[in-house]
Specification:
This protein has 217 residues and is of the alpha+beta class. Strand 4 and strand 5 form a beta hairpin. The chain is globular and about 45 Å long.
Length: 217
């Protein structure tokens, strides 16, 4: 790897991504309990308390148990995440040239990376609550931004969501914490790796990062 390229380092951007993972996991919609499509802000607000309570009551999640975190992500997060769009946006224009196999591997490694992000972040949940700000959107909008902040110990954490309306309801495709969008954070990192080593190099770098994280556990 080009020594000047450090796309997956743990720095301030990594911390912001970690915080985003925390906030995203805490406020994710549980659509299985809904009988009709709710407004995106109402949907997030309704389930925030449920998910906070779930995390706080599970010592395994608090301790960073990867199996429990993966289960939480798979059951509560992935069905309501526009993950293909998120991955494609993070990869950028190179996504169009990716083969179906490369796309599948990119999504798999990216998911593993995000699960690891959540495992560290969820253990930080103590007494936080999610407070939504007034949303400016028209009933006909198909893409919206829901703005909120997480309040608890310390200063409030700015948290915004980008959602798109799909045939199966509203889905989140990007998250902003403290002024930094999650997809933008990864796009910059991924672009450096793609420029240096191509798409296969990015896949290899993600896989290596995930193996290293697993070994540290």
């Amino acid at each position: 790897m080009n020594p000047s390229v450090t796309p997956l380092t743990t720095d301030r951007r990594g911390w912001l991504a970690l915080s985003a993972g925390l906030c995203a996991a805490l406020a994710w919609p549980l659509a299985a309990h809904a009988t009709a499509v709710e407004a995106p802000d109402a949907l997030i607000q309704r389930v925030a308390g449920e998910v906070f309570a779930l995390v706080k009551s599970d010592p395994a999640i608090q301790a960073g148990d990867m199996n429990k975190v993966a289960q939480l992500v798979d059951t509560k997060l992935m069905p309501h995440l526009s993950f293909t769009r998120m991955t494609a946006s993070a990869v950028g224009r190179s996504w169009r040239q990716a083969t179906p196999e490369q796309r599948q591997r990119l999504q798999a490694e990216f998911k593993t990376l995000l699960v690891r992000t959540y495992s560290g972040a969820l253990g930080q949940v103590k007494d936080q609550t999610l407070v939504l700000r007034p949303m400016r959107a028209a009933p006909t909008d198909t893409e919206v931004v829901v703005r909120s902040e997480v309040r608890g110990r310390g200063d409030p954490i700015q948290l915004d969501y980008r959602l798109e309306k799909t045939a199966s309801g509203w889905k989140v495709y990007d998250i902003n914490v403290l002024g930094v969008w999650l997809v933008d954070t990864y796009r910059g990192q991924f672009a450096q790796e793609i420029q240096a080593r191509g798409l296969d190099g990015l896949i290899a770098a993600l896989a290596e990062r995930n193996r290293s994280n697993a070994a540290k556990s």
